[in-house]
Write a structure and sequence with these properties.
mainly alpha
Length: 146
Amino acid sequence: MIHHKALAYLLGHFLLALAGTMLIPLGFALWEPGDALQPLAYGVAATIIAGGLMVALLRRHAQRLSRREALLLVVGTWVSVCFFGSLPFLFSPYFSGLTDAFFESVSGFTTTGATVLDQVEILPRPLQFWRCFTHWIGGMGIILLG
């Protein structure tokens, strides 16, 4: 039997850790003038709300995981982190939709480096920083680090 609530509780912690890393480019956006503050702020807020709700509502469901549940947690973490990591791109006017923003996030966290943009230089510097930071986080091994 799979303990979905325990998996969601742990996934909430991963999302809160992602939100913590998103605060660094958000701080850069506060310092750097441009139009990247709002997309980064919305992305951080959505990630904190989702992760915080999972942790707060499912606190008493933490328990030991089986191998099957651990593999499901890895898959869920990759998909969730890539989705929530794509929100700053999605909220910016530089990406045409969820598919492009999600692709950009996945290519960052997997350290592929591919992009859907013709010129990456058109991104504001804080969004470029978040894009590069996803490569660094992915290179560190997001699951291993967590």
